[in-house]
Specification:
Blueprint (H helix, E strand, L loop, with lengths): L3 E6 L5 H10 L3 E7 L3 H11 L3 E3 L2 H5 L6 E4 L6 H10 L3 E5 L6 H14 L3 E4 L6 H11 L6 E9 L12 H4 L3 H16 L5 E9 L29 E8 L4 E7 L8 E8 L3 E5 L3 E6 L2 E5 L10 H18 L7 H20 L3 E2 L1
Parallel strand pairs: 1-2, 1-4, 2-3, 4-5, 5-6, 7-10
Antiparallel strand pairs: 7-11, 8-9, 8-15, 9-10, 11-12, 12-13, 13-14
Helix pairs in contact: 1-9, 4-5, 5-10
């Protein structure tokens, strides 16, 4: 395969990251774009030189010239479009989360296995250069057994509204939108141990806080202060078969002095922090030392990680190799997310 012809389905805000990265990749060409909003689709096609414009994803998938697709739509259509694309013979890069429920995830996995096509889940944090460095160190035994992780992503004011706050389209709030990133990041670096139980809470106390003045935050194109059916805050303790554990808390809105971001993984020989910047803490000559790797970015760099994610997808399509974030991992993360929501609803620990 020479040039890979890409179709991008959904031209909302995240699609720009896909489109830019494809444009920067010499092995891909943006051939088609699709959006329910024809004006927005045509604007994207004009900017990125796409030959074809569709308002129905089925038309794009029926186009034999399309080799692979990026799915950048609302969460409630991820499974449906992924399955249709695979059955149409297309390779798939689907934005996180893989879908809204574990049942949908299992269905997608089955079709991936039947089709023989590539499906890569958009866990972009895995593709950050610092994370890849830490993964090499973990693999070399630098930290010993990783037995505990803690991840926090707290927004004090940051409910985007629109489809993000409509549970029918999103499947949930901050947990499934931004929490999925740090949960997957920790699980990946812990060696992807089998999750066995979850004890969790979710809260709906503050809504979207549309009354707050003098502070701005990102709002979805269809923002509506009256429509909010998702949680403000979620927290969870996740236990794994090997005895390791992960504690996570994540919010769209919370009475807090400032936003909070931290991701730390603890091992027998040391600890490493990923957010807000990469730091390794270990012992040398019976002395605790803090090590700051000399890399291009101290912390997560969205643009370079996204480029690597797209480049990796391109490589997998060309070679048939399995992606760094395969469908099986998307299913396991959905198992954890579904368990968190179930535990919170029941008010008790649930087995996975």
């Amino acid at each position: 395969m020479d040039m890979i012809r890409i179709g991008v389905i959904g031209t909302g805000s995240i699609s720009g990251m896909h489109l830019n990265a494809y444009r920067n990749n010499p092995q891909t060409v943006v051939y088609a774009v699709c959006d329910l909003n024809e004006e927005r689709a045509r604007a994207a096609a004009a900017e990125y030189g796409a030959e074809k414009v569709y308002t129905d994803y089925r038309g794009l998938l029926a186009d034999s010239s399309v080799d692979a697709v990026s799915i950048c739509t609302w969460n409630n259509s991820h499974a449906e479009i992924s399955i249709a694309a695979l059955k149409a013979g297309k390779h798939v890069l689907v934005e996180k989360p893989l879908c809204r429920t574990l049942e949908e995830a299992v269905q997608v996995q089955q079709v991936v296995e039947e089709s023989g096509k590539i499906l890569q889940v958009g866990f972009v944090r895995r593709y950050d250069a610092n994370v890849q460095l830490l993964q090499k160190l973990v693999g070399a035994g630098e930290f010993g057994e990783i037995y505990y992780a803690k991840a926090t992503t707290l927004r004090r004011l940051g409910n985007p509204g629109g489809w993000f706050s409509d549970i029918a389209r999103s499947g949930g709030g901050p947990l499934i939108d931004i929490g999925v990133h740090v949960i997957d990041l920790c699980w990946y670096l812990m060696g992807r141990p089998k999750p066995v139980s979850v004890s969790a809470n979710t809260y709906r106390k503050l809504g979207n806080r549309a009354n707050v003045e003098n502070l701005s935050f990102y709002k979805a194109a269809d923002y509506d202060a009256a429509n909010n059916t998702v949680e403000d805050l979620a927290n969870a303790l996740i236990r794994f078969e090997n005895g390791a554990s992960l504690i996570v808390d994540v919010s769209f809105t919370l009475h807090a002095k400032e936003d909070g971001r931290s991701v730390s993984l603890y091992g027998e020989k040391g600890v490493f922090e990923i957010d807000p910047e990469t730091v390794i803490v270990s012992e040398r000559a019976n002395t605790i030392v803090n090590i700051y790797p000399q890399t291009d970015h101290k912390g997560f760099d969205f643009n370079s990680a996204f480029q690597y994610e797209i480049d990796h997808f391109t490589h997998c399509v060309q070679t048939g190799s399995q992606p760094l974030s395969p469908v099986q991992d998307g299913v396991e993360i959905m198992r954890i997310l579904s368990g968190i929501y179930e535990s919170a609803a029941k008010g008790e620990e649930v087995k996975l």
